[in-house]
Amino acid sequence: MTQPLLTTKGLSRDFGGLRAVDKADFTLMPGEIRAIIGPNGAGKTTFVSLICGRILPSSGAIGFNGAEITALPAYRRVRLGIAYTFQVTSVFANLSAYDNVALSVQRTLTDGRSRGAVREGAMKALEQVGLADRAGTPAGQLAYGHQRLLEVAMGLALQPKLLILDEPTQGLSDGEIEGFVALIREIAREATVLIIEHNMPVVMQLAHRITVFDAGRIIAEGDPAEIRTNTQVQEAYLGAAHG
Ligand SMILES: Nc1ncnc2c1ncn2[C@@H]1O[C@H](COP(=O)(O)OP(=O)(O)OP(=O)(O)O)[C@@H](O)[C@H]1O
Q1: By alpha-carbon position, which residue is closest to atom 26 of ligand 1?
Q2: CATH 3.40.50.300 residue ranges for the chain
Q3: Mean pLDDT, the chain, as a whole number?
């Protein structure tokens, strides 16, 4: 039987008196594209922040690839194969696209591998997202959509088993979104993808399964057809989103 890539058990996180994530039990199988949806403030970003180690849980456990990672610092999780890109653009504006990605590659090198390995890894990631011809451009001078792609390249350069994307299509044009969907499908041939996404057409096209958060709790999970017809989800999210 295939083992899950990621599991959370009773995962919770409090901010003062507010329970942002409430006893989340979650299982992600290798090779999946999983979307996380839910209204604003539902706890989606907090949940993925717990998985990648940006913040630590108040209680509960996280397992990744057969190991318990609940208390591991973020950089150790990166080495195990968890990469993430966040809502807020995190590129270094003054560094070239290449240097941004090369920094990511260096994070994966534990044995001081050669500059050749860095170059190879960085260029491969830039090629995957279609930015190889802009390798020398300072990241801050790239168009917004290209900066978002650069962030994905920075994630890919970590050669992740799990790539977490938080609202990657936010601010992209329709044409860019179409390219993005194709890119995610391509990435999913090698990595498991966990994506927080507000754009429903993107979610419905891409996700094998969808997990719905509301007020910190997972209220539903299923394939796109199941989620579309789930009345609790419609009330919590889809109904609200469409007035
Ligand atoms: N560092 C923090 N300190 C205090 N409260 C926080 C912090 N981070 C998140 N919260 C609160 O936790 C709740 C969940 O927030 P979170 O950002 O995880 O939701 P979300 O589902 O990602 O929302 P959005 O779709 O708007 O990004 C919100 O009420 C938010 O205000």
Answers
A1: 40
A2: 1-81+161-180+192-243
A3: 91
